[in-house]
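Problem statement: downstream parser choked on a complex file, so we are re-checking the raw output for the ribulose-5-phosphate run. The parser issue turned out to be on our end (a line-ending mismatch), but while we're here, posting the original submission so the record is complete.
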Amino acid sequence: MNQDQLKQLVGEAALAYVQPGTIIGVGTGSTVNCFIRALPQLPFKVTQAVSSSEASTALLRELGIEVLDANAVEKLSVYIDGADEIDHQGFMLKGGGAALTREKITAAMSAQFVCIADESKLVHTMGTFPLPVEVIPMAAAAIIRRFARLGGLATLRLKDGKPLLTDNGGHIVDVRGLGITNPLHLEAEINQWPGVVTVGIFAQQKAQVCLLGTATGVKTLKF
Ligand code: 5RP
């Protein structure tokens, strides 16, 4: 099976975590798109969701699912999202799609985080994939210098030659060269730098379950 087929497999496997009559949290990315497109296969209709990006919102609405403002919801039954890397403790590195801030907010509202990923995403130590960090634009250069002092090479993510603008009006810096050996500690440290909106380490908001697409089928990892 190729990577797209594995994404399809785990997207469909995540349907088992959707309970009738509940509001679900929906992440962002190509794996989550497979999950969203599979929702009509359920024997009941999912009517309401909170979404982590404009892109997922558009796809949910195409399927007739109402997308609620997060402020109007107290708790979500489950949050389904992909990851750029996930380790053997359920800690994740996310933000390849620049949606990390809304992803972390939605994950924090949810009783359970179910990560869906193909097996290429499972790692022992995170940090091979460049770490995304959403920043307030005026702080970008200072934050890039702070990462250099930690031994990381941070660059501003560009789109069409200009700094990429997130759904929140922020910029993204991508940091290479950090071996993330203590995700909880590094997340807490970067979080308190002035101008950091969200760091793409999901250690506080780790996954409770990972549905991992492998050549032999879906493996369920519990953390
Ligand atoms: C978006 C994310 C995605 O979950 C992550 O980039 C994985 O994406 P894909 O499913 O396309 O591989 O964090 O901000």
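For whoever reads this later: The helical segments are 3-13, 30-38, 54-62, 100-108, 140-149, 183-191.
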